[in-house]
Amino acid sequence: MIDAHETSFLRRAIGLAAEARAGGNPPFGSLLVGPGGTVLAEERNTTVTERDISLHPELKLAVWAGRELDASTAAATTMYTSCQPCGMCAGAIERSGLGRVVYALSTEQLRALTPPSAPPAVQLDGPHLLEEARVPIEGWPA
Ligand SMILES: [Zn+2]
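A: This is the predicted complex of the input protein with zinc ion.
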């Protein structure tokens, strides 16, 4: 359960999703809240208007946090987002070290509300060239 304060942040994320849609983009919005309850940043999906498939609000906030916050501050933040982060964003959130994500719709609930769409299958082909590929990795990070 989330409290009334957190519910208001989640409602703001839903409002940002509505703003994204009104602006011609997919309906997703997110905000990042610091440990004291201060809104640090807000983002909307802009994948259509900026013609960039990576411009999900969660990814934009994760990148922002990675640039602007130290590790302990990032770990003390909470992202409120209108939908459960996709795989791309979940990976970025993990790398940015954010502490917690609170979402409104689950991926399953989103799928139930939208027409079925199957992303094209990508063929992954590897591993290859171990002896060559390991050279720039050995000793890293150091
Ligand atoms: Zn995403």
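The two ends are 42 Å apart (CA to CA). The first strand starts at residue 29 and ends at 33.
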